[in-house]
Amino acid sequence: MRVIDIIKQADKTLFSFELLPPLRGNSIASIYKVIDPLMDFNPSFINVTYHQEEVVYKKHPSGLLEKKTIRKRPGTVAISAAIKNKYTSVEVVPHLICGGFSKEETEYALIDFHYLGIDNILALRGDAPKNLRAFQPEGNGHSYANDLVSQIAEMNNGKFLDDEMQHTFKTNFCIGVAGYPEKHIEAPNMATDLTYLKKKIDAGAEFIITQMFFDNTKYFSFVDACRKEGISVPIIPGMKPICTMRELTALPQIFYIDIPERLSKEIQKCTSNEDVFKAGIEWGIEQSKELLDNGVPVLHYFTVGISENIRQIAKAIF
To answer: For position 145, which CATH number holds?
Structure first.
């Protein structure tokens, strides 16, 4: 079922979450370990992230460096299929990114998802690999997420890259995209960022999931600004509880987000990561309740490999 239809049919705020594929060499059992504790709260959909290849250098005893290209978290398509097979009541929303994909490879991936009966895609440009300063598209690939959205929308209309193909089938993907309540790092200002977001919606996207945030006023202001820009699709708040002391400084550096002063002071009072974990849950509950009271369509959580904190938040909310 398409996410937009699930939201339209709902008479209350829904619950969903995002998963990371396990590191290469780890079992899919680690995925089920994250999902199982959250099934009691009837998630409407589960997102599965996609990670492109990275370049690493292996140093040999001779001192020479060997350049290697690896994918640390493979398996998005297979994991999506496994979740759909094991948890039949939940929809799967695999991520699809521009980075590392040509347009042809994108088309093949979409055909695979279609054959698997997966009806939803979160279309993202993706970040630059760690070894590059700026994002670089694949040869004959997409530079921007709105172009990826357009390709998916064209397949929904039965249009494939080969114009000479006849009697093509039409896919039925519901396309989601990312939104940034505190502005994407590469956008010069919020107004420009909203213009880019509107392009993705105009290209065919039907819902937005936001980058994580810890200050609900940032989300509410973002929604208001989107509506003024003419963006009317559901805007789903994305949240991640702080788990460790290190995240107090790491999350702003990685995701370019602010930590509210009150939360920062609470974390700084903690004497162990166990205390931080509890404080993160308490903040997540407070944040979720306010969003729930304001009628958000879905509360969406980033698990990042663990779900006990999300389980405790969901238990207090749903």
So the answer is: 3.20.20.220
